[in-house]
Write a structure and sequence with these properties.
heterodimer, A: 110 residues, mainly beta, six-stranded mixed β-sheet, five-stranded antiparallel β-sheet, 54% strand, globular, B: 114 residues, seven-stranded mixed β-sheet, four-stranded antiparallel β-sheet, 11 strands
């Protein structure tokens, strides 16, 4: 079983739409959780850390459900510039090893 | 504030050759992790260096080795290159002991093995 699983998509949504991505992780002892954004042929960039109580940054909201071992990312009022691949990342309990999902592709359509 | 830098940006090698990739961490960071990202996949953890020692290692063969220097910069070496080693190699830096261990990535080195 993979450490982190994501729906690869693609998600094609119109501008202004709300879109949600989910990600599940297998190690119940995982400590830290993140969403990274990766544009085509570029490096991943940290979008948000995901805190236990959930957190919001502008149009982006991240949630963590430890009981069900999943993480979500909600994007409201989608912009064309949100088109990218969104990577779910989990920090294993064994240290600083990050496990990445395969990424979810989002295209926002005018 | 300089971010993570990597060199070279692109590299073409043939099977059996050896390659060395370089990374300088973000200012103030002391830990460097290396990842391999194949096309259409998420990054896969190769290993992590702290205090000039390999701290943790992912599921990669011994052909992959590394080093960290006193100034925290790091190298990734791959011997006996295979076609399957073609990928984007990413370096990420972090500060050990920071509250959330966020990692910041360099632009990557795109390696093509022919």
């Amino acid at each position: 079983r993979k450490e982190v699983e994501q729906d690869p998509g693609p998600f094609n949504v119109p501008e202004g739409a709300t879109v949600a991505f989910n990600c599940t992780y297998s190690n119940s002892a995982s400590q830290s959780f993140f969403w990274y954004r990766q544009d085509c042929r570029k490096e991943p960039k940290l979008l948000m850390s995901v805190y236990s109580s959930g957190n919001e940054d502008g149009r982006f909201t991240a949630q963590l459900n430890r009981a069900s071992q999943y993480i979500s990312l909600l994007i409201r009022d989608s912009k064309l510039s949100d088109s990218a691949t969104y990577l779910c990342v989990v920090n294993a309990d064994t240290g600083n090893q990050f496990y990445f999902g395969t990424g979810t592709s989002l295209t926002v359509i005018p | 504030d300089a971010g993570v830098t990597q060199s070279p940006t692109h590299l073409i090698k043939t099977r059996g050759q050896q390659v060395t990739l370089r990374c300088s961490p973000k200012s103030g960071h002391d830990t460097v992790s290396w990842y391999q990202q194949a096309l259409g996949q998420g990054p896969q953890f190769i290993f992590q260096y702290y205090e000039e020692e390999e701290r943790q290692r992912g599921n990669f063969p011994d052909r992959f080795s590394g080093h960290q220097f006193p100034n925290y910069s790091s190298e990734l070496n791959v011997n006996a290159l295979l076609l399957g080693d073609s990928a984007l190699y990413l370096c990420a830096s972090s500060l050990l002991g920071s509250s959330y261990n966020e990692q910041f990535f360099g632009p990557g080195t795109r390696l093509t093995v022919l």
